Amino acid sequence: MTAMESPTFVRFQLGAQLRRVREEASVTAEQAADVIEVSASTLRRIEAGRVGIKAPALNALLDRYGVTDAELRDTLLSMAKTGKQRGWWAKYGDLPSSYRQYIGLESAAEEVHNFETLVVPGLLQTEDYARALTSEDALEPSPEAVERRVAVRMQRQELIATGKLRLLAVLDEAVLHRQIGGAAVMAGQLTALLEASKRWNVTLQVIPFRAGAYASMVSSFHILNFAGGPGVVYIEGITGDLYAEGDDVRRCTVVFNSLRASALSPSDSIAMIKAIQGAGPDR
């Protein structure tokens, strides 16, 4: 699936376009929401690409924004139609909308650059590691909810297994030492990282403790690159997730390249993982 065939990616781009034309028309979110008789928060969710919009409401907004370009209107209406389609993750109905949106974007991406300060990237987590991590959610999900989240994470990993997605992951050394799930689970996770590193589409690098301070020490992030559209930056937060485009993608790419320069080479990173694995939890 290319980016422009992905309902989530299309919905995300449609929302960005609607926000742009609204701002150019000097219409507030509250004023726009009144036009289609929804709350301002719902309007913002539409602009964030988290929910779709039907043709009558879209036409009403475009009228309010003074959009007369017939080609642009047709394009946006077509995007709204595509954005209503559902992905495989729709069967997991209790997933947060922000997570569903990320899965959709990830499924359409060609390459993901992921920097993690505390945990193994989701695309490389073992089932036991993912279960231990999800079980510690402060919102105390039920055992059934935990298993659904783990199942989603495992299905996401098919993108790596089938070679549809390339992953460049930079990890702080702390990720390798944190005993999530206990010694046995962590030993299995380190083995999985070593196995993943053998794939042509996975590159792992570790920033060692001895590197000292480096860029973006306090913030993990993802850069999703698409074959048929602009890149997107994703930053997960407790109070809400952030998606950014344009200059923010370029800035984060500069930061990611700096992180790679601070990290060990892929081969030296693998050597470090093997050394930590060999030392065991009592090192």
UniProtKB/TrEMBL annotation:
Gene3D superfamilies: lambda repressor-like DNA-binding domains (1.10.260.40). It comes from the Bacteria. Residues 18-72 form the HTH cro/C1-type domain. This is Helix-turn-helix protein. Coiled coil: none annotated. GO terms for molecular function: DNA binding. InterPro entries: Cro/C1-type_HTH (IPR001387), DUF5753 (IPR043917), Lambda_DNA-bd_dom_sf (IPR010982). CDD domains: HTH_XRE (cd00093).
